[in-house]
Amino acid sequence: MLELHNVKVSYPTGDGIQQITFKVNPGEVVFLVGPSGAGKSTVLKSIFLEERPSEGHIIVGEYNSLFVSKQDIPYLRRKLGIVFQDFKLLNDRDVFRNISFVLEVVGVRGKVIKRKVLRALADVGLSHKSRKYPEELSGGEQQRVAIARAIVNEPYILLADEPTGNLDPDTAAEIMNVLMRINMRGTSILMATHNFALAKSYDGRIIRIENGQLI
Amino acid sequence: MNLFYSVREAFAGFTKARVSTVITIFTVSFFLFLLSIVAILSLNMNRVVTMLNANHDVQVFLSNTISAVEKDELRAEILDMDDVLAVDYISKDQAAAEFQREFGDDIFEALEENPLPASFIIKLNENSDAKTNINDFAQKLEQMPNIDEVVMHQGALQILVKFSSVSRVVMYVLFVLVFLGSLFMISNTIRLIIFARRKIIATMKLVGATDAFIRRPFLFEGILQGLVGGSITMAAIYLLVKIFVLQWPGLLVVSKEFYLIVLLAGMLFGFIGSLFAIRRFL
Fold it and tell me: Domain coordinates of chain B in residue numbers?
């Protein structure tokens, strides 16, 4: 499913991650917990190859980071659902088109697109807002759109980078419930968070990272 | 490839970023207009030169001792040359009559004998090589027997021919410079539009869109902008030519194909401009 073997990513500033080795099994929830600057985001970025490991390798499904060319990266990313702290929605289009975009990318036909998007919107409880633009939604709603976008392609694994970081506690709990519901249907989740208490209150394995290394 | 998606996105982009779209369209129009003017001038300059050429002939003066038979032989020989359309004979008497008509004096009042030589007026084929290599043609004539002098009335013609070949080069260079400058400016304007959407492009890449998939709608949008810009230029040129022709009939001709080329050039500008502009963001 997802395996990191002795991964090292270094930045010119000297920060980065090293000797990162762990595995996420099918259907599993894994929390990557650590303080700000510990390297959580870097670990996730190395998985979707926003940052290339300088040492070690990462296996995502049939992809091995050692053999993934620049042209292959989009195809690798289609196997992953990614949720960001700042949502990263496409502000120039409505909720429906934000989600349908990832289906257009893989060339899904119009009718199927409609069915899948409506399904994903129902999963995150936003069916009634499909024609709204991102800026018309609350933070929690925007994050739910991002989650719908991440799951609509039925990814191997959902990567979430501080998905509740910008949200108030109630909304954060809401988002966590949505994620857990998705996991119940079989999607693995790797979630980075600085909030140890939050991670502990859900059913999942916790991996701790500090100063770029697992502890 | 999802063509429908790309076209829909292009139209969406077209209507969303209204101000920058209008700026791009007018940039395309403006530079296309400049290019069209350069092109029309150079196309019509050839025309003016050709028109002037058609009115000019070469005159050769015959020696006074030439006999009637020699004269006929010479005439046949000249007619045989490449590019010669006709050879008209002007006798000494005709020359004197012409002189009197032009200057009002009877030449025989002052002189007992007619000093004017007989001559041939040689008409050349239009577009003949002889016109551009008029000096070579004159040299050949001068080497023939019984020809005293070769006169090309067309000093002006020669200057024009020279001028037109020089100015043709100048026009080509100007055309290429304006063309490249236009592409540069249009590409930069389009880049502003794309710059405003750079975050969207980055996100698209994160969720698995290939560069080609991201690029395609921008290219369509560029073509669309070029099409509108080209139409505006077409209308402007049409009006301008109308006004010009009312003032100076017959001096300027702009063909239907030219307008079509303007339109296609607009689309090409939009396409290449977008192609260059998007490269920075992928």
Answer: 3-51+160-279, 57-153
A153 chain-B contacts, CB cut-off 8 A: 208
- Beta-carbon separation of B205 and A93 below 8 A: no
Is A75 close to B2, i.e. CB distance below 8 A? Answer: no
Report the distance separating Cα B42 and Cα B175, nearest Å. 10
**How far apart are alpha carbons B208 and A150 in whole angstroms?**
11
Count how many domains chain A has: 1
Kindly report, residue by residue over B101-139, the tens digit of the pLDDT.
777 767 677 777 788 888 888 887 766 655 556 777 788
Q: What are the structure tokens assigned to A182, written together?
A: 């998705």
Round to whole Å and give the CA distance between B14 and B12. 5
- What CATH number has the domain spanning B57-153? 3.30.70.3040
Minimal Cβ distance to B207: which of A93, A110, A149: A149
Q: Which of A77, A91, A110 sits opposite B208 (nearest CB)?
A: A77
Over 70: is that where the pLDDT of A10 sits? yes
Q: Which DSSP string do the residues of A116-136 spell out, in sequence order?
A: HHHHHHHHTT-GGGTTS-GGG
Per the CB < 8 Å rule, is B207 touching A50?
no
Concatenate the DSSP letters of all residues of B61-110 into one string. Answer: EEPTT--HHHHHHHHHHHHHSTTEEEEEEE-HHHHHHHHHHHH---HHHH
Q: Which residues of B touch A88 (CB under 8 A)?
A: 203, 206
